[in-house]
Amino acid sequence: MKKLALALLFVVPLCSLLAQSKGTYSFLRNDVSARAAGLNGSFVSMTDDPNVLFYNPAALSTISGPRGSVGFFKHLLDANGGHLAYTQFIDGIGSVGGGITFLDYGSFTETDESMNTLGTFGATDIALVLGWGAHVDEFTSAGINAKVIYSSIAGIKSSALAIDLGALYQIPSENITIGASILNLGAQINSYLATKESLPLDFKIGITKRPEHLPVLLNLNFHKLNEAQDNFFQRFSSFSVGAEFLMSESVRLRLGYNNEQRKELKLGSSTGLAGISIGGGILINEYIVDYAFNSYGKIGGLHRISIGMKL
User: Fold this and answer.
1) Strands 216-222 and 117-135
2) Is 172 helix (H, G, I), strand (E, B) or coil?
3) Which ranges of 218-297 would DSSP assign to H, the alpha helix?
4) Model confidence over 258-294: pLDDT tens digits?
5) How far apart are the C-alpha atoms of 144 and 123, rounded to whole Å?
6) Please, are residues 256 and 74 in contact by the beta-carbon 8 Å criterion?
7) pLDDT at position 175 over 80
8) Phi-psi region of 248 (alpha: psi -120 to 50; beta: other; left: phi over 0)
């Protein structure tokens, strides 16, 4: 218990900072792919991308063939993360997918109560996701994920089970897609301490619109709609917007803004570029290489790279 307490004393505040939320499994709020990060999380209503698995399982129904994605990102303070995803349509069943996302917080110095060095220890978070999505009718889709979550600090482990629920509604005549998802609905199985913690439950709603005659996808997402606020309108203060510019058949540029992130990362009277993201993608044969940079203002920034592929 002393070893665990010392580990939590140093690592939990760090994990909270890195993931920008509270709780043992706060890494689940991190964006997964470089494309999604370039849009600053405005991904609930996006389609035809294997990484919709992590945002809205209903959108799996928009993927017709085998698709894969692998990615890596450099977080703050020597923490590194990544993901792996695969999706495929199965006749008579619908679209299924599987993925894993992880965050390694690096190595820490282990000490006793007198601050004598005893060695080093690590901390890691991992989530395994299995999903299904299918058309309910011509315009509507539904989906569900099963999720196994694992966390380890200094050899002490915690785990949880959760599900994600999603819905997607497409209006082809208006080039509009509307999505909604409830993520991380579940509970801890094993906790670090005697008291079990809640999972980072997140109710999201998003809309994607491609204006007529304009080569751009415009996204607006509202996050954490389940969380209590002082008044009704504050429930919508956690929002993100993103734009994906289709420069050509093989080149895309992205820009995003996250309102809650910008407010939380304000230092003094300055926010700098906190909450702003930029990115892009290049299609090379059957592969697409995506990159994103998310600014945390004066604290620093995150770099992500992903490679998507048609299999």
Assistant:
1) unpaired
2) helix
3) 259-264
4) 999 888 887 767 778 889 999 999 999 999 999 999 9
5) 29
6) no
7) yes
8) beta
Domains held by the chain: number: 1
Q: What is the residue whose two structure tokens read 């917080």?
A: 105
Under DSSP, the state recorded for 270 is B
φ, ψ of residue 78 in degrees (nearest 5): 65, 20
Q: What is the mean pLDDT of the chain?
A: 88
Output the CA torsion 15→21→22→23 (10° steps): -70
pLDDT at 8: 36
Q: Percentages helix, strand, coil for the chain, rounded to the nearest 5?
A: 20, 50, 30
Question: How many CA atoms within 13 Å lie on the side-chain side of 289?
Answer: 3
Q: Residue 166 belongs to what domain range?
A: 2-310
Residues 252, 245 contacting (CB under 8 angstroms): yes
Strand residues in 137-275 grouped as ranges (E):
140-153, 156-171, 176-190, 202-209, 216-222, 239-246, 251-258
DSSP 19: H
Residue type, 294: N
**At residue 87, what is the residue type?**
T
| pLDDT value of position 196 | 82
CATH number for 245: 2.40.160.60
Q: Using pLDDT thresholds of 50, 70 and 90, give the confidence band for residue 23.
A: low
Task: Look at residue 229 in the predicted model and tell me its pLDDT.
Answer: 85
User: Within a 13 Å sphere around the CA of 222, how many CA atoms are in the beta-carbon half?
Assistant: 12
Q: Could you count the other beta carbons within 10 Å of the beta carbon of residue 24? A: 25
Q: Are the C-beta atoms of residues 216 and 199 closer than 8 Å to each other? A: no
Q: Report d(CA 64, CA 95) in Å as an integer.
A: 8
